Amino acid sequence: MEADMTCPQCGCEHVYPDGSLWNCPECGYEWNPQDAAPTTEGVAEIRDANGNVLADGDSVTVIKDLKIKGASSVIKGGTKVRGIRLVDATDGHNIACKISGVGAINLKSEFVKKA
To answer: What is the pTM (predicted TM-score) of this model?
Structure first.
């Protein structure tokens, strides 16, 4: 079981046990392997600026310059982001991703288009 264990949220293979829970070092997700598998029922479809449905692992392109709160840097329009993760956020930032030169960041789906 340990040899083929992957993170149920992001699919990372570098998971490790911590007591009765398993942890993912990439997304920080913790789960109990004895619990039922997480379901995606009830999660609304997340669509990009053009109305295309987004899924985990998709590549997207930022459609306009985005200022980063608390920093003097900007994410330029046209920046391609690979391997997005869809998250359920109450503040509207429903895409978690890593952008080279910026790091881990959350984006709103209304400012990206599917690549």
So the answer is: 0.61
The DSSP code for 37 is P
What the block records as the tokens of 40 is 């995606």
User: Which residue from 70, 113, 111, 69 is spatially nearest to 92, judged by alpha carbons?
Assistant: 111
Q: All domains of the chain, ordered by start, with CATH? A: 1-36 (2.20.25.10), 60-114 (2.30.30.40)
Nearest-angstrom CA–CA distance, 16 and 88: 24
Strands (E), the chain: 16-18, 21-23, 30-31, 60-62, 66-67, 74-75, 80-81, 85-86, 95-99, 103-107, 112-114
Q: Tokens in use for 12?
A: 């990372």
Distance spanning both ends of the chain, measured CA to CA:
36
Per-residue pLDDT reduced to its tens digit, 3-36: 577 888 777 888 888 888 888 888 888 888 776 5
